[in-house]
UniProtKB/TrEMBL annotation:
Protein name: Membrane protein
InterPro entries attached to this UniProt entry: LpqE-like, Lxx211020-like, PCuAC_sf
Provenance organism: Herbaspirillum hiltneri N3
Alphabetized SUPFAM superfamilies for the sequence: DR1885-like metal-binding protein
Pfam families in alphabetical order: PCuAC
Length: 168
């Protein structure tokens, strides 16, 4: 094998390894695919935070997310949020049914999310927090929640500057 051919093979292997690392935010348990668990940073003294992710059932049978837990919080709960007129209503749900071919997208603003209650320390940008998802059929799945600053169309600096201007 020539050096050039060997180098191109190594480059291909490195490229595959890099693309696998880039999708390390995805996890699998049985037929369930869990995508990009993340949470927003919290401020010191904030007792709880929300975590978000997606769950897709790629199988032919339904499953159910029955519990969540994290050592970063005293308790973790599955919540749903909805708007009733101008009133935001949040309540705990015991579980989430995931039908075959269904994708549940937990995101800020509406729908399901995970509440981390009684945080042991603030969630800081760049942190990775362990979370265990327990499914009725697929069993336990360990994931990492990445603490990211996902603001609505603004970077962290822009949002912060806007707040500072409002207070002058």
């Amino acid at each position: 094998m020539s050096h050039r051919h060997l180098f191109s093979r190594l480059a291909l292997v490195a490229g595959i390894a890099l693309s696998a690392a880039a999708s390390a935010h995805d996890y699998k348990a049985g037929d369930l695919q869990v995508g990009h668990p993340w949470a927003r940073p919290t401020v010191p003294g904030q007792p709880s935070g929300g975590a978000y992710l997606s769950i897709e059932n790629k199988g032919k049978t339904a499953d159910k997310l029955v519990s969540v837990s994290s050592p970063a919080a005293k308790s973790s709960e599955i919540h749903t949020m909805s708007m009733d007129g101008n009133v935001m209503k949040m309540r705990e749900v015991g579980s989430i049914d995931i039908k075959p071919s269904e994708k549940i997208a937990m995101q800020p603003g509406n729908g399901y999310h995970i509440m981390l209650i009684g945080l042991s320390q603030p969630l800081k940008l760049g942190d990775k927090i362990p979370l265990t998802l327990t499914f009725e059929k697929a069993g336990k799945l360990e994931v990492s929640i990445y603490v990211e600053d996902k603001t609505a169309g603004k970077d962290a600096k822009g949002a912060k500057d806007g707040m500072e201007h409002m207070h002058h």
